[in-house]
Amino acid sequence: MTRVLVVEDDPQLVRALKINLQARKFEVVEAGDGATALRLAAARTPDAILLDLGLPDMDGVEVIRGVRGWSHVPILVLSARHTSEEKIRALDAGADDYVTKPFSMDELLARLRAATRRREAPASPAGIPGIATDEFTIDLAARKVVRGERTVRLTPTEWHLLELLIARPGHLVSQRKLLLEVWGPTYSEHTNYLRVYMAQLRRKLEANPSHPRYLITEPGMGYRFEP
Questions:
Q1: What is the pLDDT of residues 133-185, one digit of tens each?
Q2: 16: nearest Cα among 3, 2, 1, 30
Q3: For residue 90, how many other CB atoms are within 10 A of its CB?
């Protein structure tokens, strides 16, 4: 049974989430504040985390950073904060998706299913053990990226995108294929997702993210990894 940690201080929303998740055979663990969330994330090892940013004891971004210090568990943010700056801050901290309140329960559950599928995907494309460039090395079997002397932490979504691109070095991978593979058919037109996540990957991997050497955009068509 897939275990979901719900981090939310609104009792009515927690109740609605719990009813809908349990009806779909998810196991639900609840936390009403950040400190409890961090403790339960370590003790109960959830398969996914649904996280509100407006917690009573700390900002949800601090929870994301705390979890990302040791885990790649998918984190889906649920927040009433609508600005691009807030979304980018959460995604940069390591969140895998961002859902603004109020939201459709069906959409949230679809995103949750997609996030858990990504986590269960094979660790590396067949026959590709890793990639070495002048800037970074990628060990797909160990799910590890090293840039200089520093290990770069990638979220599960970032990993999935990177794996799809380096599986065909030098070849264009269409926007539609990336969206279908990573987010599913419901999101085949959501090209803004790709822009956000590719920008994150470039910030983490490229020496000059505004003029990328390795993660190349083909305007209106897709992206390619140039080794």
A1: 989 999 887 888 999 889 998 888 888 899 899 888 888 889 988 988 888 77
A2: 30
A3: 23
Instruction: Kindly report the pTM of this predicted structure.
Output: 0.65
- Please state, for a pLDDT cut of 90, what percent of the chain lies above it: 51
CB-based contact 57:85 (threshold 8 Å): no
Asked whether 176 and 183 are in contact (CB, 8 A), the reply is: no
DSSP class of 59 = B
What phi, psi does 215 have (nearest 5°)? -105, 95
The torsion region of residue 83 among left (phi > 0), alpha (psi -120 to 50) and beta comes to beta
Q: What distance in Å separates the CA atoms of residue 181 and residue 48, rounded to the nearest whole number?
A: 19
Determine phi and psi for 40, rounding to 5 degrees.
-70, -30
- Write down how long the chain is: 227
Give the separation between CA 64 and CA 41, rounded to whole angstroms. 11
| Cα 41 to Cα 7, 30, 109, 120, distances in angstroms | 10, 10, 20, 18
Question: If DSSP codes are grouped into helix, strand and coil, which group holds residue 191?
Answer: helix
Look up residue 140 and give its amino acid: L
Taking phi first (over 0 means left), then psi (-120 to 50 degrees means alpha), and beta for anything else, what does residue 45 get?
left
Separation CA 73–CA 48 (nearest Å) = 6
